[in-house]
Amino acid sequence: MSHQAVLTSLKQVHSNIAVPHYQPSAHKPGIVHIGLGAFHRAHQAVYTDSALNRAGGDWRIIGVSMRSSDTANKLNSQNGLYSLIERSAQQAKIRVIGSIAKVLTAVPNTQAIIEALADPAIKIVSLTVTEKAYGIAFDTGKIDLEHSDIQHDLQSPLNPQGVLGVICEALARRYRASQAPFTVLCCDNLPNNGQKLKAGVVDYSRYVNKALSQWIDEKVAFPSTMVDRITPAVKAPTYAEAAKQLGCVDNAALECEIFSQWVIEDNFPQGRPYWEAGGALFVDNIHNYEQMKLRLLNGAHSMLAYAGFLQGCRYVRNVMKHADLPEKVAEYLRCASKTLPVLAAINYQDYCEQLLARFTNPAMAHETYQIAMDGSQKLPLRIFPSAVYALQHAQDLNIFAYATAAWIRYCQICTHANSGYLLQDPRREEIEQALKPQSMDSAAIVSRFLAMENLFPRALLHSQRWKTALVRALDSKEFSSAAAPSKL
Questions:
Q1: What are the boundaries of each domain within the chain?
Q2: From CA 202, how far away is CA 190, in angstroms rounded?
Q3: pLDDT single digits (tens) 183-208
Q4: Between 412 and which of 46, 82, 294, 482 could a Cys-Cys bridge form, CB atoms 3.0 to 4.6 Å apart?
């Protein structure tokens, strides 16, 4: 590959490769995206590329990296161009994305980032920074005063280093200049993410300027979104394949699955790109779509991770080749889809078939042990709401008991001294206590898990039907032994 030039122009790319129909330099930035990781470049940047292809407009993206200059160096040296390989079980498609104009970094300071956000030409500021970076206690909506970025920025609000501080100072500059605010678009994997981010920004700004805080509360739009696309870490074969297909070196190449979903509350006072061109769905209220993702995609993911781990399956794709587990996954999806309201834009049967295909995709290497982490935080959102609905509507809840029993056995294995695995869960000590002594029978284990505070919803805590189903699942042939599987 040393003889190949680095990608800097669309003219270098082989003629059979899909490239932007527009001239990237002819379109000015209208979006700043904070958190320019692989997921954004495989998701929102792709939708924006499709929007520019279809409808044009000044909607290119200024990317922001808050922690590292690596991505910025790669993309800036390639004029923002990069390739995306989309993989299914049957094929791999490659396209070049031109929607990123340039990338800024927070090193040595964030002043250039704040100036970019304060520019009236920027209509949208979007984010994928992961929930820990915000410094918001999402259960209360208040800022976390122990968070290092929050502490720094409240002491030095004009020179912030954290996400909330940067957004707030940029909005303050617009406020002082009597300019319209940008729309803040959270694309992190949080339920009701727009309102949660709004609560944090408003609370942070109260410490800075109460009049500014009121203006943000009244004037700034924070639409919620639901995002979905599996984007694995990039490895050497990705770069090699990109170079071979493009005819030039792409140091920013990445890959992802074919499937992509973006559901957005349509609240953009300053306008937005025509993201529908990439398949984005605009809705008035996102709650039911979030529940669909949590109960179907995330719930099935958790169940197959625990059940697959117990059968020695390292990856999700291995689970889907197991003799019995694929039918369990299909059963889970059938039962969970019956607990959801009708959505005019979604056919649940089609969506579930897409999920099964995604889980089976041999190109995606998702480890069951990794997915299985933090079960005490995930099951109350992913599994238990479906179980409650099934219980209250006289539906079959056995598959939800099966999923919960798989988690309990997984915990039992990972707390066993000789298993070779570590239970990674914020409530690890409580779980370990609930599993002592090791000789407890299934009924005793169930009783002690049900006794854990703020884990199971009240409807399940007081249901003998649920408790019986859970004990029966724990006693089933698949889960009756707590012996660890062979080390993966």
A1: 10-283, 287-474
A2: 18
A3: 999 999 889 999 999 999 999 999 99
A4: 482
